[in-house]
């Protein structure tokens, strides 16, 4: 391991689900000088503001967890915003880090970078080997650009900029908006509302057969810090030279039906779960190959049911303050 607890660490996107989890993990591990920054402190889409911020604060390393994110519907409805805003954030931050001699940076991407029909489980080498899923292609291209930006600074300037590609995340501070949320918060909220209203039926799009992998955000934060703590030699021993991205997941998936049944158990729904077969299923399976991450000495610890209980506990405690 090559890290110092006294280093000044900048976490961007600290008010989001992933960024806040990284701040918690750094605190848990004893890091003493964490600068947690959100949208109100600096506009990451403004090159001048970002450059001035880096010049003033002189950090040792960066976790870039800030991004414009959303579910399938949001990606489909606002493709221009998703590609434009993410390209701005990534480009401004990564370039400003380099210009201010920040040697270490961790960029957070997404599993949607891989081709729609990539072999399962998806390996890091599958990047750019096929067409992307059309509904979130603009977002995926932005994330691919972030990976390649990191790789390019590594190649040309000898930087140590790494990227982690998480599977589907969930947990505290998730987005429960009725249009823009991902599958777990969307279903969790739906089960909760049906129970509260005394209903006895929940209808879910599709057949319930597609398989998905889910990772609790605290596990994601743990993996991110673990990867960042590795020496360059330890990191490159399990990846290709100049290849900056590593998959982060559990290596285990479940069907949407199994997910729904587990959520029903967690929420206390006793009624009938129905599937609307007239609605699309989407990709049959999305599972990450996490063999490289395991060789680096990390694997997920939070099981799905335990993680969902934690997510539901947070939802109940914060429901009155959420944008639903």
What does this structure look like?
This protein has 324 residues and is α/β, with parallel strands linked by helices. It has a single domain, classed as 3-Layer(aba) Sandwich (Rossmann fold), CATH 3.40.50. The chain contains eleven helices and 13 strands. The strands form four sheets. It has a six-stranded parallel beta sheet, with helices on both faces. The protein is globular. 43% of the residues are buried. The mean pLDDT is 93.
The total of helices stands at: 11
CATH architecture: 3-Layer(aba) Sandwich
Radius of gyration: 20 Å
| Number of distinct beta strands | 13
- Approximately how much helix is present in the residues? 40-55%
User: What is the H/E order?
Assistant: EHEHEHHEHEEHEEEHHEEHEEHH
Low-confidence parts: none
Average pLDDT over all residues: 93
């Amino acid at each position: 391991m090559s890290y110092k607890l006294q280093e000044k660490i900048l976490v961007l996107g600290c008010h989001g689900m992933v960024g806040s989890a990284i701040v918690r993990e750094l605190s848990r591990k004893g890091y003493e000088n964490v600068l947690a920054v959100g949208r109100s402190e600096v506009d990451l889409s403004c090159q001048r503001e970002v450059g001035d911020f880096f010049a003033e604060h002189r950090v040792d390393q960066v976790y870039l967890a800030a991004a414009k994110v959303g579910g399938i519907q949001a990606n489909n409805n606002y493709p221009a915003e998703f590609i434009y805003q993410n390209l701005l954030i990534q480009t401004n931050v990564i370039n400003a880090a380099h210009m201010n001699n920040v040697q270490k940076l961790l960029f957070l991407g997404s599993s949607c970078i891989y081709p729609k029909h990539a072999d399962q489980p998806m390996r890091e080498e599958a990047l750019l080997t096929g067409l992307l899923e059309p509904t979130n292609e603009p977002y995926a291209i932005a994330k691919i650009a972030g990976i390649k930006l990191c790789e390019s600074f590594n190649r040309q300037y000898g930087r140590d900029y790494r990227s982690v590609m998480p599977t589907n995340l969930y947990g505290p501070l998730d987005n429960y908006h009725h249009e823009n949320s991902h599958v777990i918060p969307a279903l969790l909220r739906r089960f909760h509302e049906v129970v509260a209203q005394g209903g006895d039926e929940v209808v879910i799009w599709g057949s319930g057969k597609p398989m998905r992998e889910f990772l609790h955000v605290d596990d994601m934060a743990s993996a991110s810090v673990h990867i960042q703590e590795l020496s360059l030699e330890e990191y490159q021993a399990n990846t290709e030279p100049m290849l900056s991205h590593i998959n982060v997941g559990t290596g285990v998936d479940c069907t949407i039906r199994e997910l729904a049944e587990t959520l029903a158990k967690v929420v206390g729904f006793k009624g009938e779960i129905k599937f609307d077969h007239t609605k699309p299923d989407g990709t049959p399976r999305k599972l990450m190959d996490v063999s490289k991450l395991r060789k680096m000495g990390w694997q997920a610890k939070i099981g799905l049911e335990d993680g969902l209980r934690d997510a539901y506990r947070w939802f109940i405690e914060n429901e009155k303050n959420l944008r639903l």
